[in-house]
Amino acid sequence: MRVSRVQAAENRQNVINVASRLFRSRGFDGIGLKDLMEGAGLTQGGFYKQFASKEDLAAQASRRALESASLRWSTAIAEHPEDPLGAVIAFYLSPEHREERMDGCPVVALGSDAARQGNEVKASFEAGIKAYLEILGRVIAETGGEESSGKAMAILSTMVGALTLSRVVNDPDLARAILDAAVKQVREAAAA
């Protein structure tokens, strides 16, 4: 049975959305096309009608995941305009975000995998990281900080590293201590 162009476009978007979550949960190589398509409620046969390759899907799913993450940062800022950097820190370095394997930060979930992917996937991550840096640079500048670009890079690196470390340890107290230490360092870096 043929699907309409509208349905095909909706199916494609659904596959990208599902893949963005499943890749964050299992990694790019941790899930096959059959399971990705099943997760979207479709058969594997339709995959190549919608995507050139698994890497094509990985690039698009990465872009979607990073856009979603940037939107979450913007939402946190909009909800707390009196302390935009504090809002990003509170959201990003929270135990709740630590536990969000499928919806959390794609840089943390897939960063080492992305480094081994092709240029399309890396370009998606580069664009997402630049968006993070732009948001951080803007909120640092709003708080009177100088050299916001360099500070934004250092702060993002600290936050990504802390969230990554907090996810790879079993001890919940150590995980929390890592996040708390990062919060302190990020605030000090922004104020310096």
From TrEMBL:
The keyword DNA-binding applies. InterPro entries: Homeodomain-like_sf (IPR009057), HTH_TetR (IPR001647), Tet_transcr_reg_TetR-rel_C_sf (IPR036271). Keywords: DNA-binding, Transcription, Transcription regulation. GO terms for molecular function: DNA binding. Residues 9-69 form the HTH tetR-type domain. The keyword Aminoacyl-tRNA synthetase does not apply. It holds the Pfam family TetR_N. Residues 32-51 bind DNA. Signal peptide: none annotated. It comes from the Bacteria. This is TetR/AcrR family transcriptional regulator. It comes from Bradyrhizobium archetypum.
